[in-house]
Design brief:
This protein has 102 residues and is an all-beta fold. It has one domain: Jelly Rolls, CATH 2.60.120. Helix content is 0%, strand content 47%. It has no helices and eight strands. It has a five-stranded antiparallel sheet with strand order 1-2-8-3-6, with no helix packed on it. This is Cupin domain-containing protein. InterPro entries: Cupin_2 (IPR013096), RmlC-like_jellyroll (IPR014710), RmlC_Cupin_sf (IPR011051). Pfam families: Cupin_2 (PF07883).
Amino acid sequence: MPERTSLEDLEKAPHAEVFEERTPRTVRLQLTADERVPKHRHPESNVVLHVLSGAVEVTLGDDVYDLEPGDVVRFDGDQDVSPYAVEDSTALVVFAPKETGD
C-alpha cells in the first residue's frame, strides 16, 4: 500500500523528514528569507533538489545556481553544498544512495 503525506503537514524546520522510511531519504527543506544552510556534503548520496516555492541560491563547490519554483537540480553529494533563501522558500530534497560496485 502506498504511503501518502502532505508537505504542509510537516512541522519541523528547516529539515522535515517526509517519510519514516529513509531509503531514499526525502526531506522538505523550508528556509526563511536570508537563511543559509552552512556548507556541507552528503558523500553517500546523489541529491535531487526541487524548488517548490520562493527563490533559492544553491552553491555547489565554487558555482552558484539561482533556482525558482519548478527548477530541479541533481548533483553528486560528494561536493560542498550550501542553499541560501533569497526569499521564504520550500524545496523537496531526495538523497538517493549511490550504488556500490560489487
